[in-house]
Amino acid sequence: RSNLDPFRAYKDEEIWAVLEKTRLKDRVTSETGQLDCVVGDNLSMGERQLLCLARALLKNTKILVLDEATAAVDPETEVVVQTTIQQEFSHCTVLTIAHRLSTVTSSDRILVMDRGQVVELGTPANLLSNPDSQFSRMLTAAQNGAVIL
């Protein structure tokens, strides 16, 4: 509770609802103390990311900034994170900073930066339709096993 609602501004039902949406309800129910359990090292990196999403859902945020939100999570948790973002934050402005390009291909717009400068801006379809676009080249390279830095 203290991690999601430190000022006790929300009802338990609201907290359980966001835990359900982020697929953390079963995990929290299994802990001694449930909503009042202590969290920290006992959570995986993926669970920590989902807890952050639950906090943003509880606050009904209008702008969500994600900085490498799926960089340190397993593929299964990445799907949960991405699904939660797409389903639960569709009414928000979501700024996603990512090196794992698969995490941004469903975005409305993509801004590609190189050495602090904007080099491209467009829809994924627009950028990918041009084989000479930097985003298209990076995605092709990533699909062929290259590491994008």
Automatic annotation (TrEMBL):
- All copies of domain ABC transporter, residue ranges: 10-71
Q: Which domain of life is it from?
A: Eukaryota
SUPFAM superfamilies assigned to the protein according to its UniProt record, in alphabetical order? P-loop containing nucleoside triphosphate hydrolases
Question: Which UniProt keywords are listed?
Answer: ATP-binding, Nucleotide-binding
Return any one Pfam family short name.
ABC_tran
Single GO molecular function: ATP binding
InterPro entries associated with the record? ABC_transporter-like_ATP-bd (IPR003439), ABC_transporter_C-like (IPR050173), P-loop_NTPase (IPR027417)
Q: Which Gene3D superfamilies match?
A: P-loop containing nucleotide triphosphate hydrolases
Answer whether the UniProt record assigns the keyword Iron to this protein: no
Q: Is this entry keyworded Nucleotide-binding?
A: yes
The entry's cellular-component GO terms read: membrane
Its name, as the record gives it, is (California timema) hypothetical protein
**Species name for this entry?**
Timema californicum (California timema)
